[in-house]
Amino acid sequence: MRWQVLVVIATLGLLVTTSVQADIIIFSVDPNLATEWTQFDYYNPYGATASTTTATWNSTNQNLELTSNLGAETADRYRALYKTGATRSDTDGVTVTFSDYIGSWDSQTGHNTGVGLVVSSVEQGNILSNVPQYEFFMSQESGGYHYAVLKNGIAAFLYNGPMLAELPSTIELEILRDGSDYVFNANGVELVRDSSVTESLSYYCLSWAVSGANTLSVSADNFGTVPVPEPSMLTLLAAALLGMLCYNKRDRK
Q: How far apart are the first and last CA of the chain?
């Protein structure tokens, strides 16, 4: 009987491993941005030109390089990027890691720069469109940097954090699921959670933003979804392990 128990445990373990396998892109090879990815304006009220905000693959550090250089006070450009056709399930989390952040800000006008994650009910959303969505970003503003979470558009702040003493060298943003809650983590620290958006948010993307005569360059890596294991599968695995322990204990008597 012992070998049958081992087979059951191995099979369940394989199923659990498969169910929680992350679909994260680490950009170790050319991601073919021109043919396999989609870029779009998340917000562009003044019609800033496409050439000023771009995503390119850096073969040296194997990251995405996100850059913006608007060069005009009356310009705003929020750009977004996703792998064409990629979707998430309602239980999937989403993650991205930013590094080498170099931005600028205008203390007179309050114009800023930022980077973030978006999960949305539509494939190509807009921060003013008032559709079911969450936007989680780190923003550079006059006086420093802070994290913020928006719901269903730019006017609905769920979280607008205090200014950070200094910019972290690595900015890991995660939108995770815990039951009905969306959980927003920055560098492993939970900032806020919310369960008020009940619609299916099937689409996800990363975003970077510049307003005013500012510039931004930042590297992005480890972008993708993090499935949550099914509780029933974990229960089965725990039961199988408990069964084996009880069997071994009885066998020794």
A: 16
% of the chain at pLDDT higher than 70? 79
Tokens at residue 57, please?
A: 């693959």
For domain 23-228, give its CATH number from 3.30.300.30, 2.60.120.200, 2.60.40.420, 2.40.50.1070. Answer: 2.60.120.200
Residue 242: which residues within 8 A CB-CB, separation 6 or more? Answer: none
Which of these, 81, 148, 77, lies nearest to 113 by C-alpha position? 77
**Which residue in this structure is represented by tokens 């559709």?**
131
CA 43-157-174 angle, to 5 degrees, is 80
Query: Cβ(96)–Cβ(206) under 8 Å?
Result: yes
Residues 6+ apart with CB under 8 A from 203: 82, 86, 87, 88, 119, 120, 121, 122, 123, 125
Cα separations (Å) of 138 from 107, 114, 195? 18, 6, 21
At 125 the three-state DSSP class reads: coil
pTM of the model: 0.83
- 8-state DSSP, 5: H
In tens, the pLDDT along 53-105 reads 999 999 999 999 999 998 888 889 999 999 999 999 999 999 999 999 999 87
Q: What single letter denotes the amino acid at residue 48?
A: A
